[in-house]
Write a structure and sequence with these properties.
about 325 residues, single chain, 6-stranded parallel sheet, 11 strands, 3-stranded antiparallel sheet, alpha/beta, 8 helices
């Protein structure tokens, strides 16, 4: 097979819960996806000619953020099916030359993940440092001025241990502390787990968010529509260390054959987004180019963005 199958692949996104409900419980499921594989690509007419399917998270989750709040990275949520059914999906998809791409969420977990339950149980718990806990400086209400991307302050108070924990997303999605080597090892092992199952690639959720400023300095203010947009996010995202996370994930993928990584870097600045390829092209194989979302809706504007992106990603 071509070592770079993804370069010309047609990738079809499936949001499992709303795709096809096979058991009439109101939620789409794995069996429903299997049932429709022939419509995607079985080699006979009519079919869509799909080369790969990107699945939004299927992991065990309380669904505060529809699966992006993960309780177990290595298990399937019962509402979607079982691990045996997922393995059947892999097998049936591969029979039809359809590859399976999963989501990986490296920067946050669910507040109900066993790691966080342990972390918030005590300041002395071995997993306390797996998440970001801070005191508020004297005379200050919060550890710093950071806001969460979903609204509100990015810090929640824990009554039991009397400290704040950091969450860039929902309060039910505490951020992992990637400065702890144990966290890095635990998350990277997730990729190996699924690659060993036969998964063909990963879409990496917000790869520019794992690392935060060591000193937790305040972000400078600017003009914006909502509080989160009224800050320049120079201390809570896009740190150089996050680029290194992508490189380490690539090292895992390269242990296997024909595995692909595509990273979500939601930043309108194409130079910052393209930097995640790595200077030697040793980061994710592909990066989402969100600069299109900030372009005028005209052909010349899109052409300009395409030329610009090709220059930035040349040789990657």
């Amino acid at each position: 097979m071509n070592n770079q199958w993804w370069e010309k692949a047609v990738i079809y996104q499936i949001y499992p819960r709303s795709f096809l409900d096979s058991n009439a419980d109101g939620v789409g499921d794995i069996k429903g996806i299997i049932h429709k594989l022939d419509f995607l690509n079985d080699g006979t007419e009519p079919f869509l000619g799909i080369d790969a399917i990107w699945l939004n998270p299927l992991y065990s989750s309380p669904q505060y953020d529809f699966g992006y709040d993960i309780m177990d990275y290595c298990d399937i949520d019962p509402q979607y099916g079982t691990m045996a059914e997922f393995e059947q999906l892999l097998s049936e998809a591969h029979k039809r030359n359809i590859r399976i791409i999963m989501d990986i969420v490296p920067s946050v977990t669910s507040h109900l993940h066993p790691w966080f339950i342990s972390s918030r149980s005590s300041k002395d718990d071995p997993k306390r440092d797996w998440y970001i806990w801070k005191d508020a400086p004297k005379g200050m209400k919060y550890p710093n001025n950071w806001f969460g991307v979903f609204g509100g302050r990015a810090w929640d108070w824990d009554k039991k241990t009397k400290q704040f924990y950091y969450h860039n997303s929902l309060p039910e999605q505490p951020d992992l502390n990637w400065r702890n080597p144990e966290v890095e090892q635990a998350v990277l092992s997730v990729l190996e787990f699924w690659f060993n199952k036969g998964v063909d690639g990963f879409r990496i959720d917000v790869l520019n968010y794992p690392f935060k400023d060591k000193e937790f300095r305040d972000n400078p203010y600017c003009f914006g529509i909502r509080p989160y947009d009224m800050q320049k996010h120079i201390y809570d995202k896009d740190l150089p260390e996050s680029v290194e996370v992508g490189k380490k994930m690539r090292q895992i993928a390269d242990k296997f054959q024909n595995k692909m990584l595509v990273a979500e870097i939601y930043n309108p600045n194409p130079e910052i987004a393209a930097s995640y390829y790595g200077k030697k092209g040793d980061g994710p194989h592909m990066i989402f180019n969100f600069s299109f979302a900030y372009s005028k809706f005209k052909a010349s504007a899109f052409k300009k963005r395409i030329v610009e992106w090709n220059k930035l990603s040349k040789g990657k």
